[in-house]
Amino acid sequence: MIGAGGGEYARASDVLLVSDYGYGAATPGILKRLRAKGALREWPVVLDSRYRMLQYSGRDRGHANEPEVEKLWEFGSATIG
């Protein structure tokens, strides 16, 4: 949103939600550059990433479903919970 001309929405926002499903619209590098520029102010960053959860630094919260967590930690068919 921010990189695609969403400045008006960004100024009215209180949080940044990053949804990365591996299509290239959101990447760890984009978040890193926004943080380096100070563009995120004091916003909390919530991440929903299917494949790269551990590659994002500087996130405040993350969301993953059970199969995504199993893949992250290589549990294979282990049951979590």
Provide a short characterization of the protein structure.
The protein is an alpha/beta fold. The protein contains 3 helices and 3 strands; from the N terminus they run H-E-H-E-E-H.
Q: What is the residue-mean pLDDT, rounded to a whole number?
A: 75
Our count of domains comes out at 1
**Helical/strand content category:** alpha/beta
Number of strands: 3
Description of the molecule:
The model is unreliable at 77-81 (pLDDT under 50). The protein has 81 residues and is α/β, with parallel strands linked by helices. The chain has a three-stranded parallel sheet, with no helix packed on it. The protein has three helices and three strands.
List keywords for this structure.
disordered C terminus; 3 helices; alpha/beta; 3 strands; 3-stranded parallel β-sheet; 81 residues; elongated; single chain
Write the SSE topology:
Blueprint: H1 7-11, E1 16-20, H2 28-37, E2 45-49, E3 61-63, H3 66-73
Parallel strand pairs: 1-2, 2-3
